[in-house]
Amino acid sequence: MAAPQSLASRIVAAFVLMASVVAGVFALIVVNAIDTVEMRLVSDAMNRQLDFIIEESDQGRFPALGPGLDLYVAPVGASASLPAWLAPLQEGLHETENDDEAYHVLVRDRSGTRHVLVLDQEDFERRETMLFVAVTAGVVISILAAALLGRALARTVISPVVRLSEQVQHRDQLLPLAPPLATEYADDEVGKLAAAFDETLGSLRAALEREQLFTSDVSHELRTPLMVIASSCELLDAQGLAPPQRAQLDRITRACAEMQELVETFLGLARAPQERGTTLVGTSLAAVATEQLHRWQPEAAQRGLALDLVSESVDHGLYPAPLLRAVLTNLVRNAIHYTDAGFVRVVLREGGFSVLDSGAGIPEAERAMVFRPFARGGSTRGDGIGIGLSLVQRICDRQGWRITLSPREGSGCEFRVELRTS
């Protein structure tokens, strides 16, 4: 697959191509025209020279021939008296070679006598070579001049586009108080493009602001009922409950703590890009994986699945606990949800982990869609709304992690997360 070319290089290439075509066609026309004219001049000059020679011969005089000229006279039909390389020639002007030397040969029959005038082409060839060199040099100079002109013009034309591109890509353009772009450009095509970017960026800023406000408001409003639930759990815990009730209370307490962490996760995702640095508590991959294994073990057992944790190598990194927990929770839950029999396995390695299952797998045509919001597997698979993997993708993108999906040999699939991609 050919590498994409920049707009500036395409402008230069267009100038060079145009100059090559124009200069090449012009060179061919010049060479052909000069060759035609020179042949006509040679023909006229040799015919006049032969007329003069015949006229002088008729009066009994034999004029001296100029340099490079030779004359052969023989009866018509007696070609044997002529040199072998001239014998086959018919009347008229010819361009032929003998012993790697080029000659112009004029053959004329008069009163039963054949006159053959031979002109050495050495001077002609020298002039022709000089012409070709001059024309070739002109073509090369034209192409170089076109390349330089195209490069200079490309810089002039592309510079506002490059500047606009850099401005659009700058992260500050998503800030609500970012200045408009169109005011810095003339009212031309680039100015209209800048105005279009202003309109699009304005819509994007509004959408991001609505999302951030909605997430912040929802997260803020959830804190109050969560605090009520947490305090109620503390009060119930002090009542000395029986073991069955205490087990349910512990379950409610864990769920409340997880919801509080999710609130922090959503608030972190709602922050603007320039606020990426979070103060979430760091934890190890092994700790979160072990916690998730215990959490999902009962549901896996209820479905008849084996939920395993395998450590291929030790990872010593620390990661934001709520974000890593959200990623692992969604991946393990999805794997259990879409696996009918067999196993779900979490494999830990240095710098990342994988979640594997022995389920039916994901068709190749659907793999590119699974990380999109509201994308679901099968229509008969429970009541999920399809935002789990989308949330995982958003967290990975924000933290600089990388998640990939690939099929397993046999059946099932593997979600692989790289926590350290550099």
Topology at a glance:
Elements: H1 7-58, E1 69-75, E2 92-98, E3 101-110, E4 113-120, H2 122-169, H3 189-237, H4 243-270, E5 282-283, H5 285-302, E6 305-311, E7 319-320, H6 321-337, E8 342-349, E9 352-357, H7 364-367, H8 388-399, E10 402-407, E11 413-418
Parallel strand pairs: 6-8
Antiparallel strand pairs: 1-4, 2-3, 3-4, 5-7, 8-9, 9-11, 10-11
Helix pairs in contact: 1-2, 3-4, 4-6, 5-6, 6-8
Subcellular location: Membrane
Main location: membrane
Domain Histidine kinase: 217-422
Short key terms for the protein model shown above:
two-component regulatory system, transmembrane, five-stranded mixed sheet, 16% strand, alpha+beta, EC 2.7.13.3
Describe it for me?
The structure is a single chain. This protein is of the alpha+beta class. It has eight helices and eleven strands. It has helices at 7-58, 122-169, 189-237, 243-270, 285-302, 321-337, 364-367, 388-399, and strands at residues 69-75, 92-98, 101-110, 113-120, 282-283, 305-311, 319-320, 342-349, 352-357, 402-407, 413-418. The strands form three sheets. The protein has a five-stranded mixed beta sheet with strand order 6-8-9-11-10, with helices on one face. A four-stranded antiparallel beta sheet has the order 1-4-3-2. A hairpin with a 2-residue loop joins strand 3 and strand 4. Helix 1 (7-58) runs antiparallel to helix 2 (122-169), helix 4 (243-270) crosses helix 6 (321-337) and helix 5 (285-302) runs parallel beside helix 6.
